[in-house]
Amino acid sequence: MPTPKTPTLHMIKLIVGCTSPEMLRDWVAVERHKGVAYVRTRTMPKRADDIVKGGGSIYRVINGLIMCRQPIIGFDSYTRDDGHPGTLILVSDDVIPTQPRPMRPFQGWRYFKPEDAPPDLDPTASGAIDDGISALPASLRNQLSELGLL
After folding, report:
1. Burial grade of 47 (CB within 10 A; 0-12, 13-18, 19 or more)
2. Contact indicator for 70, 94 with CB cutoff of 8 Å
3. Pick the residue with more confidence: 150 or 112?
4. pLDDT of residue 128
5. What is the C-alpha to C-alpha distance for residues 28 and 102, in angstroms, rounded to an integer?
6. Per-residue model confidence as pLDDT tens digits over 107-125
7. What are phi and psi of 87, to 5 degrees?
8. How many domains in the chain?
9. In a domain? residue 15
10. Is 2 within a domain?
11. Which Pfam families match (predicted)?
12. Considering the domain boundaries, does residue 39 fall inside one?
Protein backbone atom coordinates (compact mmCIF):
# COMPACT_ATOMS: atom_id res chain seq x y z
CA MET A 1 0.00 0.00 0.00
CA PRO A 2 1.53 3.38 -0.98
CA THR A 3 2.14 5.90 1.76
CA PRO A 4 0.03 9.07 1.64
CA LYS A 5 1.71 12.13 0.17
CA THR A 6 2.78 14.59 2.86
CA PRO A 7 2.06 18.21 1.88
CA THR A 8 5.20 20.23 1.41
CA LEU A 9 3.68 23.53 2.44
CA HIS A 10 0.46 25.14 3.66
CA MET A 11 -0.76 28.70 4.12
CA ILE A 12 -2.44 30.38 7.09
CA LYS A 13 -4.71 33.43 6.98
CA LEU A 14 -7.08 35.24 9.35
CA ILE A 15 -10.78 35.61 8.56
CA VAL A 16 -12.37 38.91 9.50
CA GLY A 17 -16.10 38.94 10.26
CA CYS A 18 -16.46 35.15 10.42
CA THR A 19 -17.23 33.59 13.80
CA SER A 20 -17.15 29.84 13.11
CA PRO A 21 -16.25 27.16 10.56
CA GLU A 22 -20.00 26.75 10.01
CA MET A 23 -20.27 30.40 8.96
CA LEU A 24 -17.28 29.92 6.63
CA ARG A 25 -19.14 27.02 4.98
CA ASP A 26 -22.00 29.42 4.22
CA TRP A 27 -19.57 31.98 2.77
CA VAL A 28 -17.91 29.33 0.58
CA ALA A 29 -21.27 28.58 -1.03
CA VAL A 30 -21.68 32.25 -2.04
CA GLU A 31 -18.17 33.57 -2.83
CA ARG A 32 -17.29 31.96 -6.18
CA HIS A 33 -14.84 32.60 -9.02
CA LYS A 34 -15.48 30.57 -12.16
CA GLY A 35 -17.54 28.18 -10.01
CA VAL A 36 -14.81 27.70 -7.38
CA ALA A 37 -14.54 29.00 -3.80
CA TYR A 38 -11.72 31.45 -3.19
CA VAL A 39 -9.84 33.62 -0.70
CA ARG A 40 -8.65 37.08 -1.80
CA THR A 41 -5.12 38.27 -1.15
CA ARG A 42 -2.78 40.85 -2.61
CA THR A 43 0.29 38.86 -3.53
CA MET A 44 0.87 35.62 -5.38
CA PRO A 45 2.89 33.21 -3.21
CA LYS A 46 6.32 32.57 -4.72
CA ARG A 47 5.90 28.92 -3.70
CA ALA A 48 2.40 28.49 -5.16
CA ASP A 49 3.47 25.41 -7.16
CA ASP A 50 4.84 23.73 -4.01
CA ILE A 51 1.54 24.34 -2.22
CA VAL A 52 -0.66 23.00 -5.03
CA LYS A 53 1.55 20.05 -6.04
CA GLY A 54 2.10 19.10 -2.39
CA GLY A 55 -1.62 19.09 -1.59
CA GLY A 56 -1.42 22.07 0.75
CA SER A 57 -4.29 23.73 2.60
CA ILE A 58 -5.08 27.21 3.86
CA TYR A 59 -5.55 27.17 7.63
CA ARG A 60 -8.10 29.72 8.82
CA VAL A 61 -7.78 31.78 12.01
CA ILE A 62 -11.18 32.69 13.44
CA ASN A 63 -11.42 34.87 16.57
CA GLY A 64 -7.78 34.25 17.47
CA LEU A 65 -7.87 30.46 16.99
CA ILE A 66 -6.86 28.23 14.12
CA MET A 67 -10.24 26.51 13.65
CA CYS A 68 -10.27 24.86 10.23
CA ARG A 69 -8.58 24.41 6.90
CA GLN A 70 -9.53 24.28 3.23
CA PRO A 71 -7.51 22.33 0.66
CA ILE A 72 -5.94 24.67 -1.93
CA ILE A 73 -6.66 23.71 -5.53
CA GLY A 74 -4.93 26.57 -7.32
CA PHE A 75 -4.27 30.28 -7.69
CA ASP A 76 -5.59 32.88 -10.13
CA SER A 77 -4.93 36.56 -10.78
CA TYR A 78 -7.64 39.22 -10.67
CA THR A 79 -7.96 43.00 -10.61
CA ARG A 80 -8.88 44.46 -7.23
CA ASP A 81 -11.47 47.22 -6.83
CA ASP A 82 -8.66 49.79 -6.60
CA GLY A 83 -7.35 48.71 -10.03
CA HIS A 84 -4.26 46.94 -8.67
CA PRO A 85 -3.51 43.27 -9.30
CA GLY A 86 -4.48 40.70 -6.70
CA THR A 87 -4.49 36.95 -6.21
CA LEU A 88 -7.32 34.53 -5.59
CA ILE A 89 -6.44 31.43 -3.60
CA LEU A 90 -8.77 28.82 -5.09
CA VAL A 91 -9.97 26.42 -2.40
CA SER A 92 -12.08 23.32 -2.05
CA ASP A 93 -15.63 23.66 -0.77
CA ASP A 94 -14.56 21.40 2.10
CA VAL A 95 -14.12 23.27 5.39
CA ILE A 96 -12.31 20.76 7.60
CA PRO A 97 -12.39 21.50 11.36
CA THR A 98 -9.04 21.31 13.13
CA GLN A 99 -8.11 21.09 16.76
CA PRO A 100 -8.37 24.74 17.90
CA ARG A 101 -5.04 26.43 18.50
CA PRO A 102 -4.44 30.04 19.59
CA MET A 103 -2.80 32.29 16.98
CA ARG A 104 -1.81 35.93 17.37
CA PRO A 105 -3.06 38.40 14.78
CA PHE A 106 -0.94 39.07 11.70
CA GLN A 107 -1.38 40.84 8.37
CA GLY A 108 -1.95 38.99 5.12
CA TRP A 109 -1.04 35.31 4.92
CA ARG A 110 1.94 33.23 5.97
CA TYR A 111 3.47 29.97 4.84
CA PHE A 112 2.63 27.21 7.31
CA LYS A 113 4.73 24.05 7.66
CA PRO A 114 2.89 20.72 7.96
CA GLU A 115 4.60 19.98 11.28
CA ASP A 116 3.14 23.22 12.73
CA ALA A 117 -0.42 22.49 11.60
CA PRO A 118 -3.01 21.31 14.14
CA PRO A 119 -4.61 17.90 13.50
CA ASP A 120 -7.96 17.59 11.78
CA LEU A 121 -11.07 16.93 13.85
CA ASP A 122 -12.90 15.40 10.87
CA PRO A 123 -12.77 11.64 11.53
CA THR A 124 -13.01 10.88 7.80
CA ALA A 125 -9.84 12.85 6.95
CA SER A 126 -6.46 11.17 6.64
CA GLY A 127 -4.51 11.30 9.90
CA ALA A 128 -7.38 12.91 11.81
CA ILE A 129 -8.03 12.50 15.49
CA ASP A 130 -11.50 11.45 16.61
CA ASP A 131 -12.04 12.53 20.19
CA GLY A 132 -15.63 13.79 19.80
CA ILE A 133 -14.57 17.43 19.85
CA SER A 134 -15.66 18.03 16.26
CA ALA A 135 -19.27 17.37 17.31
CA LEU A 136 -19.20 20.32 19.73
CA PRO A 137 -20.43 23.76 18.60
CA ALA A 138 -17.64 26.10 17.48
CA SER A 139 -18.37 28.53 20.33
CA LEU A 140 -17.83 25.78 22.92
CA ARG A 141 -14.63 24.59 21.18
CA ASN A 142 -13.39 28.22 21.32
CA GLN A 143 -14.12 28.49 25.04
CA LEU A 144 -12.44 25.16 25.82
CA SER A 145 -9.37 26.18 23.84
CA GLU A 146 -9.18 29.57 25.58
CA LEU A 147 -9.27 27.74 28.92
CA GLY A 148 -6.42 25.50 27.77
CA LEU A 149 -8.60 22.38 27.83
CA LEU A 150 -8.10 21.48 24.16
Report:
1. middle
2. yes
3. 112
4. 47
5. 23
6. 999 999 999 999 998 555 5
7. -130, 140
8. 1
9. yes
10. no
11. DUF1489
12. yes
